Amino acid sequence: MPSKTIEVTPSAYAYPLLIKQLLRTPLVHSPERQIVDADGSHYNYRTLFERINRLADGLSGLGVEPGATVAVMDWDTRRYLECYFAVPMMGAILQTVNIRLSPEQILYTLNHAKADVLMIGPDFLPVLEAIADKLESVRCFILMSDAAEAPQAPVKFSAVYEPLVSAAAAEFDFPDFDENTQATVFYTTGTTGNPKGVYFSHRQLVLHTLSATAALGSAACQGRLHREDVYMPLTPMFHVHAWGFPYIATMLGLKQVYPGQYFPDRLLKLIAREGVTFSHCVPTILHMLLHHPLVEQTNLHHWKVVIGGAAMPKAMAIAAQKRGIDIFTGYGMSETCPILTLAHLPTARIEAPPEEQAALRTKTGLPLPLVDLRVVDGAMQSLPFDGKSTGEVVVRSPWLTQGYLNDPESSETLWRGGFLHTGDIGHIDPYGYLQITDRLKDVIKSGGEWTSSLQLEDILLQHPAVMEVAVIAQRDEKWGERPLALVRLKPELADSISENKLRKHVAEQVEKLGLSRYAILINVIFVEGLTKTSVGKLNKRAMREQFGTAPSSPNDENP
Ligand code: AMP
Which residue owns the Cα nearest ligand 1 atom 5? Predict the structure, then answer.
């Protein structure tokens, strides 16, 4: 018998999953809660809602229609949050522009997405000046400022944000439309070649919000996000919807703090001043905060932090726990909206010693509700959940980009076999926890065996003299490839250490942990700093270009 679709009463309301629906709850539960900017200016959810209406009315007056693409270039501010809602709620598409890309790449992304409107913060006018005459589709510029007037150059501005919002009507009729309507677009942070556009619908963003909220709220004892938390993003709003947290925090009606540009002293002061209890960031940002002198005077005992975007080293987990930070891992990527997994600590382990907890807090995590995540071999066969069998992570969930914008070939490659290919390698343990061990592109193959660069980085970071490290593959005549560690030492301990001592440290740990013997082929080079991508992750591609063919050091031990 064929399955039966439900009967729909003509007057029944179908309730499309639209971003505007996320605003219902805070307006009922916590209309007075505050949303704060770095300068201390603030308003409540009623005002947020009114300003979203006003912004939509203002944009509409400037000719923005459903289907138009409205690009934003700014630091993390309340205005950006207003754009997160107003633009898609009008049926237009929000393009979050990666302000850390080069002007040429920014130009590429604006032209490729066919942005109609560019809303830009004053700090980015020099970039605009560099690209203004090559912009192909932007016909309306808005300065994101409270100035009375816009400057005359480098473009003719149609409006300034605050006067536009003040002059607009306080109510806007946000229409219902198909929940599959595109809400956002942004570009992956590719380090070579052109960035690729990924895009998400209202339905996808709403389901991502609900599922991540469910996963975070169902944690029994650790890393739980609840109604009384105070949220501050530390992953920029241009990058993968700031991991979706502005939508989550708004739906829950949390107090929110928007830090503007990320200056470590400002961030630490904001955590203290506003009582921030929940953030998320890449390891680089937390590393920066943990090494800032002000950290000594800042109480971080109530701060929950999800670390993602790159593997969290155990040494960082331990250092953060010592400061009282409730740290845990999240995993995802631009193509996946982004959250796929979170690693919460089971109640039984909450009293475990820091080292043992760190091992769990740095696991990549359990899949969110509705996420079908597998580790597969080359023939797309699922590998057993044994904590050892390693293969590519592939995934299905309701919120994965359905392709790359105007790039059918790459889209098919991404989705080959009906699963989204993450390009990450990992294994799943009998409890369902995923552990990422490498990027496919970063994996090191010595003597035909894979060595995990992330595991080696983790081991090296546990050495007290090591500040930062990246392990990459170095070509080698005998072994095919061998690991090369680029190490930045802590200045105060630099004299106490040599390349050989670090290799010995690795060899001991490899022995202790029973890792691939090829790991002891590791070469070490001391460097002043490590190349990062636009979102603060290690740029291994650039490092391989610089060091991947460097002559091997005389470390010729046989594994
Ligand atoms: P992006 O698209 O720039 O956000 O980068 C996504 C990639 O970052 C993933 O495919 C992973 O390689 C890496 N990544 C994100 N979260 C983690 C994590 N928790 N552990 C290891 N790698 C991660």
Answer: 333
Count of alpha carbons within 13 angstroms of residue 509, beta-carbon side: 17
**Which residues neighbour 508 within 8 Å (Cβ) at sequence distance 6 or greater?**
none
Whether residue 482 contacts residue 444, with contact meaning beta carbons closer than 8 Å, is answered with yes
Q: How far apart are CA 22 and CA 248, in angstroms?
A: 8
pLDDT 10s digits, 439-471: 998 889 888 788 889 999 999 999 999 999 999
Strands of 391-396's sheet in order across = 372-376, 391-396, 420-428, 434-439
Put residue 153 in one of left, alpha, beta given phi > 0 → left and psi -120 to 50 → alpha: beta
- Predicted model pTM: 0.93
Q: Which two tokens stand for residue 242?
A: 């700031």
Nearest CA to ligand 1 atom 10: 333
Q: Can you list the domains of the chain with their CATH numbers?
A: 19-200 (3.40.50.12780), 444-547 (3.30.300.30)
Cα–Cα distances in angstroms (integers) from residue 308 to residues 43, 303, 415, in the given order? 30, 16, 23
* Cα dihedral sign, 395-401-403-404: negative
Q: Say whether 450 is catalytic.
A: yes
Q: How far is the CA of 70 from the centre of ligand 1 (A)?
A: 27
